[in-house]
Amino acid sequence: MTTTALYDVPGPQARRRHLIYGVAATAVILGLLAWFVYLLFDTHQFTAQKWDPFTYKGIQELLLRGLGNTLKAFAFAAVLSLALGGVLATARLSEHRPVRWIATLLVEFFRAMPVLVMIFFVFVALKVQPLPALVTGLTLYNGSVLAEVFRTGVNSVERGQREAAYSLGMHKTQVMTFVLVPQALRAMLPTIISQLVVALKDTSLGFLITYEEFLHAGKLIASNLDYGLPFIPVVMIISPIYIGMCMILSWLAHWAARRQRRSPKTEAVEVADAEPGTLLPGAGAHHP
Fold first, then answer.
1. Which range (55-64, 183-192, 220-229, 250-259) has the least confidence?
2. What topology does CATH give the domain 53-260?
3. I need a labelling partner for 220 at 20 to 30 A (CA). Which of 56, 101, 108, 248 fits?
4. 190 and 182 in contact (C-beta within 8 Å)?
């Protein structure tokens, strides 16, 4: 049996060289980590004054309240973004040209606008509370992005599926609801969840408009002189929690992708061979 390789198999000298490179890279990384830890100790980032505040009940409640506000803003923004994306995608797929033009203009405008600009505009110009301003900005941006995801997903379904549904007498709403969307959803799900990760991270922009979310709570603690300005400890507490929440959503995206690949719509079923002389259904029927 002949094995074809797409690359040259490294010889003894190449393997030795790769080993040296790997050891050197590991040593450099460990050295940088040690230097970073040394800087933290040298700047007194691990003193009791900077870490004791996190043992106080009031500080813990402040962080938990901020985390709850972050999750609340994300929940509102996620639901509204999905709804807005569905509406804009439906409009972009409309057979009426003016509807398509208006939807395209809205999608391209909100996708091009920075999220922070939209949040500030709603907060300052419309004079609304921080939570509605944050949710509105996140919804307009992420909803327009999801609209393109939905439209692309529906258009990716084979044209024959659409034509077969129309040939059965189904109208456009039925074709979209029962044929195109269910098939497109499986392909779109990982991208949808990835966009929700973006929405979750962008909730941190709320601290710029005084919304009391997780980052805003951390800023209040880090800027307190009584605690020795514990900026680094706050970052070391808040960052892993943000990363953990985003990793959970990212894990859902990867899980959805794996489930899509290994869960086919139908499975093969073994069928026994027909006995000699067995007629197929209807084979013995007499037609006038």
1. 250-259
2. MetI-like fold (1.10.3720)
3. 248
4. no
